[in-house]
Design brief:
The protein has helices spanning 11-19, 30-35, 41-52, 65-76, 90-99, 115-123, 133-138, 143-157, 171-179, 189-196, 199-215; strands at residues 3-7, 25-27, 56-59, 82-87, 107-112, 128-132, 162-166, 184-187. With 218 residues, the chain is of the alpha/beta class. It has one domain (3-215): Alpha-Beta Barrel (TIM Barrel), CATH 3.20.20.70. Bound molecules: erythose-4-phosphate.
């Protein structure tokens, strides 16, 4: 079954989505932390973990492998649920290779914009390969095609790395990601809300209630 993650650092959004019973995990990044109005990565990440009790990704800020490794050591020590997000750069690959060999080396390879990057991340031992669909679409590329290609490559060569569809902009992205076999889809809270809502469902509920009242002679 594909997993649903929320792409947010907002505690309120995580609490609300978790209450719906369909939330598997959360991804954050520095931009989302800024939007949530917090600069305390550890406190915010652990607050999310306490609600979701599943995978929660927190991103490194260093751009060199040594710095990423040092940050990852700290981030991964916070909880068994925490994943460290590392960008797929040369330095990022070096860091992933080392971190993924640790017993607690849970790596979310981030900022992936090509199937080749996804392949290299898997080869370096990442657990998740986050493909940024919406940002590619914004640039006139076909982001979902990269998700499909990553799926095919991981299946061809038996990689355990999970395909994570990220940078999701609307429910149609979610549907397409499900159809091409993404393992995980991380989405903003607004997209999750839109997946549920239908005016036809609301109208249907309303009509049933009215008819039930009529059936009772009211
Ligand atoms: C993934 O983990 C990222 O947080 C993310 O999906 C970023 O997407 P954006 O393009 O909406 O910033």
């Amino acid at each position: 079954m594909a997993q649903i993650f929320l792409d947010t650092a907002s505690i309120d959004e995580v609490r609300e989505a978790a209450a719906w019973g369909i939330l598997d995990g959360v991804t954050t990044n520095p931009t989302l932390m800024m939007r949530a109005g917090t600069a305390d990565l550890k406190e915010n990440t652990l607050a999310i973990v306490s609600i979701v009790q599943g995978p929660v990704s927190a991103e490194v800020l260093s751009t060199d492998a040594a710095g990423m490794i040092e940050e990852a050591r700290e981030i991964l020590s916070w909880s068994e649920h925490v994943f460290v997000k590392i960008p797929v750069t040369v330095e990022g690959l070096k860091a992933m290779k080392e971190i993924s060999a640790w017993p607690n080396g849970r790596v979310n390879a981030t900022l992936i914009f090509s199937a080749n990057q996804a392949y290299l991340a898997a080869k370096a031992g990442a657990t998740y390969a986050s493909v940024f669909v919406g940002r590619m679409d914004d640039a006139g590329l076909d982001g979902m095609e990269v998700v499909a290609q990553a799926r095919e490559i991981f299946d061809n060569y038996g990689f355990d790395c999970q395909v994570l569809a990220a940078s999701i902009r609307h429910p149609a992205h979610v549907l397409d990601a499900l159809l091409v076999g993404a393992d995980i889809i991380t989405m903003p809270f607004g997209v999750l809300q839109k997946m549920i809502r239908s005016p036809f469902t609301d109208a249907g509920v309303e009509k049933f209630l009215q008819d039930w009242e009529r059936a009772q002679g009211k």
